[in-house]
Every structure is written in structure tokens, then in C-alpha cells.
Specification:
Layout lengths: L10 E10 L2 E11 L4 E5 L6 H8 L7 E6 L4 H6 L3 E4 L11 H9 L8 H7 L15 H14 L4 E5 L7 H16 L3 E6 L2 H7 L2 E6 L2 E6 L1 H8 L2 E6 L5 H5 L4 E7 L2 E6 L2 H11 L4 E7 L2 H9 L22
Parallel strand pairs: 3-7, 3-8, 5-6, 6-7
Antiparallel strand pairs: 1-2, 1-4, 8-9, 10-12, 10-13, 11-12
Bound molecules: adenosine-5'-triphosphate and magnesium ion.
Magnesium ion binds next to α1.
């Protein structure tokens, strides 16, 4: 068994790659997560979050690169009870009641938490006596979260922990996750929601089409992807002139229409009207997370591989 030292990163991975046939799900991820950090893996559908997380859990084998969890292989770390997990998909075993299931799963870990406390914290105390195959989707999700929490493992890996959960439930889940983090545990969670990532993580790792496109504290990431877009009809003006306007991060043209991505739309609009009185049809809107990702990766046309699916708009707020 590997020795866990203070110097050993919670997760350390270099050059991680994984393909499914012709789909390059993960293409060269380098990441170090320090013990005690709470990190959000944020990205749109198909970005490679689950694939990455599955590799960290030893559930998927990478094609290339290295991955260490507390200095050990993922499989070894999981077997040693260092990692508690909640997968994105996964059914609950039948023929068990909720309390029995959580108790059973907790018993695989060296220092599990008190099951009653976990049931209380996850809003599952009321359904503790129910059969696991008779739960609603959100209830089953809460039970899966309760099982992860009961592990009391040093690293908690949660793949979209609040998917399908109501507003109050989400609040409870985040409260419980923050409490885990406050006890010095390492937490990695995957999400689509910038706001959720920002509110609950020390650091956001933005992933798109299998690559990390930004990595930093929420404020930094928000400034990058929280941009808004101004569209207008403005023939005959060079893009360079538009890009030089205050509050403007980037500009593109399609015929007479220009699209400006802006860090500060007030400043941008003031400058636009001031410099180009002929401007018309001005529209302002929030950029979706997908658009922000595409902008950050500098690839406006997407890609055949691990394509960003726009089925769930990224600027949709949780709640
Ligand atoms: N078992 C598999 N076989 C084939 N392709 C797969 C498999 N699992 C994932 N993929 C593909 O790999 C890419 C990354 O998928 P992944 O599940 O890692 O994305 P994700 O970021 O978790 O997305 P979501 O937000 O929808 O959960 C996608 O293009 C997906 O279709
Ligand atoms: Mg996923």
C-alpha cells in the first residue's frame, strides 16, 4: 500500500488521454489537486468530465498519461478506502432498504460516518425504511449521495451530485459538501453550472472537448466565461477597431452583422454608440457556457470528436 504523505497530491495526472473508438473523450489533461482543495470540473455535455472522473476512480483505463490518487494508482486508492464516490449513472442495488444500503456501503470504509447523521444531512432520514427500488429519481440520487458521504473518505468524487434534485435538496447537498471540505477533505465534483461551481469550489477547472481550457478561482473563471454578447448591424468597420473598444474581448463579423463578446457591456455599448453613430439593431445577451467554451478554445466550429452538445444550455441557472 502506498504511503500518503503531506506532500502527496490528492490527485495528480499528466497527459491523460482516453478515446472511445474515434471519439477523443479526454485529450491530454494535466491536473494537480492538493489535499483539502474543493475543485469543480465544469463543462458542457460531452466535455469529458465523466470520463476523467471514471479514470480517477479506476473505472476507466486511460489510453495514455499517468494518474495518481494520494500517490497510488486509482484502483489502489479506492481499494484502500481513500475515495468516496457518487457516479453520474448507476442504479441502487435491489432488496435493500435505504438505511441498510447506506450502512452496507459505509461498512466498506475504514472510518465511516454515523449513518443516522448522514441520513439527516442528506434529507434521506424520512425514507430510510423504503426499498431502494421504490424511490423517485431525486430520492435515489440523494441516497447515492448519502452513500458517498458516509464513506468519510479523504477524497470525495461526485459526478453531478445535484442532477435531478429539487432546490431545497440541492441546498442540503451543497451544505453537506462544504462541511466535508471544512473538515479538510479533498472534494472533486463535476457540474454544468458555473454558479454552482463558483459557489461551492475553491477552484474551477473548465473542460471542453476533452481539454482543460481554464483553471482558476471562481472569480477568474467567471470573468472569462461570464461574458456577454452584443450583436449589431455595423457595415464597413474593421474588427480590430471593435476589438480595441473598452469592455470588448473579441469581435466577429457575419456580413453586416458584428458580434462582440464583452467583459463590460455598459462600457462597450457607450463606446460603440460614441464611435460609430451608424450602428443599429443592437442586442445584448448573456453568452451561454457553450459559447464561452468555444471562445476559450478558439474553435468556433466545434469538432467531430467529443463535440460540445448544446442540448442543455450552460447559462441555465440551477433552480
Ligand atoms: N462508453 C462510451 N463509449 C463511447 N463513447 C463514450 C463513452 N463514454 C463517453 N463517450 C463519449 O465521450 C465523450 C465524453 O463523454 P463524458 O461522459 O466524459 O462527458 P461529460 O463531460 O461527463 O458529459 P455530461 O455533461 O453529458 O455528463 C462524449 O463525446 C461521449 O459521447
Ligand atoms: Mg458526465
Amino acid at each position: 500500500m502506498a504511503v500518503v504523505s503531506a506532500e502527496t497530491a490528492g490527485i495528480r495526472t499528466t497527459g491523460l488521454t482516453k478515446s472511445y473508438g474515434s471519439v477523443h473523450a479526454v485529450r491530454g489533461i494535466d491536473l494537480v489537486i492538493a489535499p483539502g482543495e474543493t475543485v469543480a470540473l465544469l463543462g458542457p455535455n460531452g466535455a469529458g468530465k465523466t470520463t476523467t472522473v471514471d479514470i480517477f476512480l479506476g473505472l476507466a483505463r486511460p489510453d495514455g498519461g499517468t494518474v495518481f490518487v494520494f500517490g497510488a494508482s486509482p484502483t489502489e486508492a479506492v481499494r484502500s478506502g481513500w475515495v468516496g464516490a457518487m457516479l453520474q449513472s448507476g442504479s441502487l442495488p435491489d432488496h435493500l432498504r435505504v438505511r441498510e444500503l447506506v450502512t452496507l456501503l459505509a461498512s466498506y470504509y475504514p472510518h465511516p460516518r454515523r449513518v443516522d447523521e448522514v441520513l439527516d444531512q442528506t434529507g434521506t432520514a424520512d425514507i430510510a425504511g423504503r426499498w431502494t427500488n421504490k424511490l423517485s429519481g431525486g430520492q435515489a440520487q440523494r441516497v447515492r449521495f448519502a452513500a458517498a458521504l458516509a464513506s468519510n473518505a479523504d477524497l470525495l468524487i461526485l459526478d453531478e451530485p445535484t442532477a435531478g434534485i429539487d432546490v431545497e435538496g440541492r441546498r442540503e447537498i451543497w451544505r453537506a459538501i462544504r462541511a466535508v471540505a471544512e473538515r479538510g477533505k479533498t472534494v472533486l465534483f463535476a457540474t454544468h453550472y458555473l454558479e454552482e461551481a463558483d459557489a461551492n469550489a475553491d477552484r474551477i477547472v473548465l473542460i471542453a472537448r476533452g481539454e482543460i481550457v481554464a483553471d482558476g478561482p471562481g472569480s477568474e473563471i467567471k470573468a472569462k466565461v461570464g461574458s456577454r454578447t452584443v450583436k449589431a448591424t455595423l457595415p464597413g468597420v474593421e474588427l480590430a477597431e471593435l476589438r480595441a473598444l473598452p469592455g470588448v474581448l473579441g469581435a466577429e463579423r457575419h456580413g453586416e452583422a458584428v458580434t462582440l463578446s464583452c467583459s463590460d457591456t455598459d462600457a462597450a455599448l457607450g463606446a460603440l454608440f460614441g464611435s460609430f453613430p451608424a450602428v443599429r439593431d443592437v442586442e445584448v445577451r448573456g453568452a451561454s457556457l457553450e459559447e464561452a467554451f468555444l471562445e476559450l478554445t478558439g474553435d468556433e466550429h466545434g469538432d467531430q470528436d467529443a463535440k460540445v452538445e448544446a442540448s442543455r444550455p450552460g447559462n441555465e441557472e440551477p433552480g
